Each structure stands twice: as C-alpha cells, then as structure tokens.
Amino acid sequence: MYVVRHFAFVSLTIARNSYKLEFWLRGAWLWLFWDLLVWSRDLVSLLLTGKRKVECECCGWRGTRFFLHTCLSGAKVHRFKEEACPSCGALKRQRQLVRHLAGKIGGSLPKTARILAVGPGRAELRWLRRQGRADLVTVDIRSGIAMAVMDMSRMAFRDGCFDLVLCSHVVEHVTEDFAAMKEMWRVLKRGGTCLIQVPIRDGLPTTVEYGKPNREEFDHVRAYGADFKGRLEAAGFVVSHSDDELFEATKSA
Ligand SMILES: [Zn+2]
Known about the structure:
The protein has 253 residues and is of the alpha/beta class.
C-alpha cells in the first residue's frame, strides 16, 4: 500500500511543480523520474528474489534493501539512499529511534511510564501503540496526527509530568530552540529521559543560524553542528548517550 502512495506522491510532486521554470532548469524533474524507475526496479527485485537482508524495526518488513527516498525542498532535490521502508514508509531515523526505544522500553522503562511525543511520525507512533503504550500524549505545531496543537517552546503541561519525551527532527524548525529544549527539560520528571534527533551537518563545528526558514532545506531555521550536545547541556540536560544524530538526554534525579 505504501508503494502505491509513494508512486502517487512522486507523480503529484512532478505535476505540482511542472509550471516552475527552475524545476526543469535545475534538473529536479530528472531525479524524480529516476526515483520512479529505481522504485520500480527495487519492487520487481523484491518480488522475484528470495533474499531478505534487511528488516524494518518499525513494522517487521524484510527485504533486499530499503528504498530510495527522493524529496523536493524549494527547487533543491534531496536524495537519501537505503532510506524508506516500502511497507510502512519509515525512514532511517525513525528505525533508529524505534531500535533505541526497543532497547529502552524493553529494559528500564516501566509499562506505566508517561510518554510525550513532540511532532511524532506515523511509523514510531504505530510501533509505540503496538507495544501497548496507552499513556502516550502527542503534540504538534500543526493539526494532523497529533492529539493536540501546541507550540513546543510554551507547552501547556505542568512541571515534571513525563517519564520520556520523544522529539525527532523538530527543533531545527523551531525559532526558539533553546526555549524548546528547556520546555522538554521542564516537563520531564527527575531522572526522566528525552530522546532527541536532529540533522547534523558533517564537518560543521558550530551551528549556523539562518534567521528564517530555509526553503531549500525543508524550512529548517538553522544547520546544527558538532556543538549540538553542548546546546542540550546548556538547557539543563545530561547527555548520556549519542549515536550519529540521536541523543539520549536525561534530567538529573
Ligand atoms: Zn517498515
């Protein structure tokens, strides 16, 4: 089903942008048509081969490889190889989050734990619900799949009411990211954990502020650099673990 949605999404992206001159001049159309060809090839290969080398942590799908993810931001094309699960649509970062959660939830987090997901994705939400995590609150800046519309830099929760806060690829969109991190720290219980993921630019020592949403970078308002861990610590967190772009930050007991 997700495969059909993907073909529809790419076709619609081409149709929606076809009137823009820069779409044709900068070659975005070429990569999107290429995406359709690569997905068709991978789909045939999936149906014909018995090899099952990768498994999606979010839905359990097994296949030869994860699929290409091509998206357009402004007139710039972003291509991520071995990225999308063709069954549930989970991206690499969502699988990484679930992999980390599976370790944590399977281990130290009690079944009664109260969880807040800020700007959640469908794949990790479906996974959490399958684990029987009923005490799950979801918020987002826009209406959509979340339970409530809320600005994460001013959240309407009392202090110390969550055991776990999940925030994946959100704060790079938030103008006041320090306020957002302080808010996540505030709503956590003492000893609670925040799992936070952000895109970090390779080789960038210090975060660069754009001053406004960058339309060619998914409306990010900054590019995070190697100082991201320090920014979490400045908000009060103790960073106990980091893996690539995933940070486990705790509120001291
Ligand atoms: Zn999946």
